[in-house]
């Protein structure tokens, strides 16, 4: 079983527990609200790796006329998203293959989606996001800081999930190398179940006109 299949099975099994922990976005509202304030009213937004629809719900609560669609590779997460956020559209999809999505988005959000990708897959994803965004379109990207990958259980999953960690420089280089201008970056601590903390990285980028 490869890393993606293992990870999807784990998320299918823990979808309810993940939703209970993260649906209110307590740890991430500040970072998301800062990004949302940059996005113009009426924007067409894609949530790549939408989970149970927590970010889509926050977007629609802003009442800025956003047109929100999202996708996730976990069927159970997509079911929850459809139920939780009837005002958005969701489908099963793989961030490693964005060929079914038409260009023309004003903003794309990838909240901890790349943590389940290899370095090469992440570079391809960022390249594809650049193709899908309009000129001046906005990109929200978050990940875990580090320099290694492997499998781990979490506070919301007893089954192992594949996690990759990235250096700040790796992401910055990938973004600037694919026609993005960096708007802002910051980091925050995430409390792990064993009492340690991980560092989470957040990037706001804007696609430059060609």
TrEMBL record:
Annotated Pfam families: Methyltransf_25
Start and end residues of each Methyltransferase domain: 45-137
A GO BP term, please? methylation
UniProt keyword Nucleotide-binding, yes or no: no
The UniProt GO MF terms for this protein read: methyltransferase activity
Coiled-coil stretches noted in the UniProt entry, renumbered to this chain: none
**Which InterPro entries does this one have?**
Methyltransf_25 (IPR041698), SAM-dependent_MTases_sf (IPR029063)
Carries keyword Methyltransferase?
yes
Alphabetically ordered keywords of this record: Methyltransferase, Transferase
Instruction: Write down what this protein is called.
Output: S-adenosyl-l-methionine-dependent methyltransferase
Species whose genome carries this gene: Lucifera butyrica
| Taxonomic lineage of the native organism | Bacteria, Bacillati, Bacillota, Negativicutes, Veillonellales
